[in-house]
Amino acid sequence: MECTAKSLAEEFVDNLLNEGKKIPCDETLESFKRTEVPVYYDEKLYKRGQAFFYENIYGLMFSKFLGLICVIALPAGLNVLIMTKMSGSDMTAYRRYLATVFHVKTWYDYDFRPGSRLLASIEDVKRKHNAASKQSIRRLKYRFSQMDMALTQFGFMGFGLVRGAMVGIHNPKEEDLKGFIHVWRVLGYILGIEDRFNICRSSVQETREICDILLKKVFAPMFEKPETSLVKMVNYLINGMSAVDPTIDYYLCMTYLQMVLENRGNYRKLENQNYKNISWWVKTKLSILSMIMYCLKFKIIRLYFQYITVFKLWLASAFPVLAYIRFGIKNGHVNFLKIIYRSKKSN
């Protein structure tokens, strides 16, 4: 069965990377316009996936942050970020990516009832995605593809599936993983990914194999010798989001990302030489982070970090003190509800 899943995954990835890049994922494709859930949508399974997220919120939020760095590294995404200058400073990156965090949290908080925040959030994401695709085709002669969207999908769920222990997910139940995958399978569908390019499959094993191949074949090579423009954009991301979590810094995040990509629990054993000469302070923080990820196997530790993370997200939405200090009250406050409902009115 494992052999079958692997062969199916290899065939899927080959099709995604070769055919997926030829098919658009914007308003020019009919599937991008759909707003209804797919026929395979299972409300109970979706809610189980949402519950799994909150049970492991610290690790999964961190895995999504690492995944976001990977998404930025994709040529299509990086070129558009440079072109639009929407993340061209610590402040603009903070506003853009905190809004992304709020979008994702909304998808875990609500259901697909007409008029729900979840649907309003998805509508806003699709509108902005489509606008960016239009700019890209006009200025870069490149239209966002199914491949780009599927690789972005990996950024939000891939590491939690293939590097679970390294991001604090220990011994998850099969049904929990099915629920987690189902969440992103349904979201991928509504966001315009065709089923033949949706990396979240009905089988946990096949989905895991697909993510593992993509990690090794697509994402890991991009960080062997990161481009100057990528380093710059990632610095903006991390410096901006340090207004939410002041413990993060560039070398901590990038070294740990490299550990995850190489599947090594010790930074001293990394093959990538870019992170051999990190400071003692970064080494100390890496050791603490690794210990936290290990200790998340214990329920009491998970509960503690669950409350810490939920509080941190609430603070970021209600009273982001550090952001006020760094960027001013106007720029430091990201009014998420205003963003999604203003988008709805403009349509």
TrEMBL record:
Q: Which UniProt keywords apply?
A: Membrane, Transmembrane, Transmembrane helix
Q: Which residues cross the membrane?
A: 57-82, 311-329
Protein name per UniProt: Uncharacterized protein
